Amino acid sequence: MDFNVRKLATDAGIFFSRAVQFTEEKLGQAEKTELDTHFENLLSRADCTKNWTEKIYRQTEVLLQPNPGARIEEFLYEKLDRKVPPRPTNGEILGQFMLEAAKEFGPGTPYGSTLIKVGDCQRRLGGAEREFLQTSSISFLTPLHNFLEGDWRTISRERRLLENRRLDLDACKARLKKAKAAETKAAAEHELRVAQTEFDGQAEVTRLLLEGISSTHVNHLRCLCEFVEAQAMYYSQCHKYMLELQRELGRRCPDSLDVNSHPARSPTDRSAFLPLNSASPLETDALQIEEVQPPASGTRKAKVLYDYDAADSSELSLWADELITVYTVPGMDSDWLIGERGNQKGKVPVTYLELLS
């Protein structure tokens, strides 16, 4: 018991003296052994790797499992060293509900038979998602986790030990400077040599670990490629399943699912603003913009909703959130207005604007 008390007191004394020394170094009141530039660069690179690996790991967890409650449950199972119980995906649950509903409505009815087809597709989508989650966890998340919990902890421990060795070395240097008697000076020189040897040895160990970060990057690069492969395969499977479902349902309700007859149009697709049976305003509207004059009354202010690039000199380019003056002229297509911004004038699509009273 006495030995433990003495050891505790000794450790407390060392800790206190190192804390004082560290504070004096920060204030510039004590000498500090500086590491070489290459070593400092290795330290900086290691810290950068740790910080970004941690962020990527956390956000990938959110991507694969958006439910925070489920993530907490998985974390607790991991800490308890127990296997996480299998959990159906949302797609699988939805598919099961649809199949059960089909039994109630009657599998021979149009609605019931369609529920069966869609429910089966949702179950397959959910199964593909579960496989993707498992593959991504093994090939990507686990290596990142192993680095943070394994290699990085080893590096951190050796760095702390190196810092202690450096503090001991600088303390020996300070004692040698203060030594006056020959015997005291000889003892201080011996302590300094021992401290220098220990510091150099620890610096070499730490340097080797830090240089191993390059191998970590190579390993994480391979894992990242495997993650992308798993993601691409998952989306490819989903696309295949949905195309098959569309073909199945297209035979039953072609009017509502014929995606090829009415393709989706983006907000920047100018053809989206034209009647289906009308020609382009550039072909039918022969107005000379520079000759158009605003009416005596009927001009309005409009707020631009989206950026718009003019197709030619007859149109006016727009920038989101700006205010312009607009008006119409006889014979002009109803999907277009004349817009003015200072001395600039041109045709603008109505759907890009919010007309203000």
Automatic annotation (TrEMBL):
Transmembrane segments: none annotated. InterPro entries: AH/BAR_dom_sf, BAR_dom, Endophilin_SH3RF, SH3-like_dom_sf, SH3_domain, SH3GLB_SH3. Its main location: cytoplasm. Residues 297-357 form the SH3 domain. It is a peripheral membrane protein. Residues 24-258 form the BAR domain. Pfam families: BAR, SH3_9. GO terms for cellular component: Golgi membrane; mitochondrial outer membrane. It is found in: Cytoplasm; Golgi apparatus membrane; Mitochondrion outer membrane. SMART domains: BAR, SH3. One of its GO terms (biological process) is apoptotic process. PANTHER family: DREBRIN-LIKE PROTEIN-RELATED, SH3 DOMAIN-CONTAINING. This is Endophilin-B1. It comes from Sinocyclocheilus anshuiensis. The gene is LOC107671032.
